[in-house]
Fold this protein.
Amino acid sequence: MTEDFFDAASGASLAKSQIVFDYFKAWARIILPRSGGVIRYMDLFCGPGVYADGTESTPMLIVRHAIADLALREALATTFNDADAMTCGSLLVALNGVAGIRSLTHQPDFSVRTIDQDLAAALGRIKLVPTLLFIDPWGYKGLSLDLVNAVLKDWACECLFFFNYNRVNAAMTNPRVVAHVDGIFGEERADALRAAVPRLTPSEREALVVRTLMEAVVEEHNGHALAFKFPAEDANRTSHFLVFVTKHRLGYDIMKDIMAKAGTTTPDGVPTYEYAEPMKPQQFGLFDGEQIADLMQELASVFVGQTMTVKSIIERHRYGRPFVPRNYKAALMAMERQGLVVASRPLDQRRANTLADDIQITFVAPGAH
């Protein structure tokens, strides 16, 4: 780790922390009433908690939120780990300085250890309370498919991890770190990647690596995954991805909306699921302003002749696609103006530029308009 990493929080670090924090709040609100009284936030690479410039990181945000919420104050257990004892000690000092810290029923639990396969095996042998796991290694050591799956196996357990694409990409064909790469993707997938990537362009290589990772993390538990991209600060290349894994579609939908709001959008308003520094010009491809037109064509094809509510259309179509509800409503209203769909409440009976979830949409068959 570079010595100055915790001097000041970068925009990317703040964005990452906010995504994790926003999801934690939503997850806790939904899971706590069904949890039996205890839920856990587990951060295996916790850091010191506070940057030198005074900015607080995710552990501090979550503990402060728990103190301010009576139900969480009684139910939330936290586990913080770092391989560096001084770093872990800094977080302990920072949390002990938070007003109300002693009001927590479960005081934060601290450990100093290197994350390895032994921990993954230990977690795999025990039944976990509902747990949100965050894995944020500096490189890639400690991140493994076994660790993710050891937590996901239990009810309401979900995982977020920072995937250092830049470092993993460099390690892909390095024979000295075969075991680490195998641990992230699984041996069979890792071998297939090593065989394929030398022939690919950088963009093709990135797409294949990320797609393979997403397939790997959802396979064992038939789950769902999302990835949010962080470009490198000093070059036109990818640095990291924040990856989310869940077994439940509700978790997927919630995180998709959080990530959509945290990133940039294309000229026609479709989320990119990618962070960009404020004031830095966004780079778009030739066709990045045509996604809504593509969505209109796809909806017309998939739902031809059918009638269903706006909400049902969104729920049936959005999984695995970049679009969010506002994109669907924009596409459907454009289709309505073109006579491609008929709404149960027509334009002159609605507020301008609105389309409520309960409105019935009928997709007009080709040649019927």
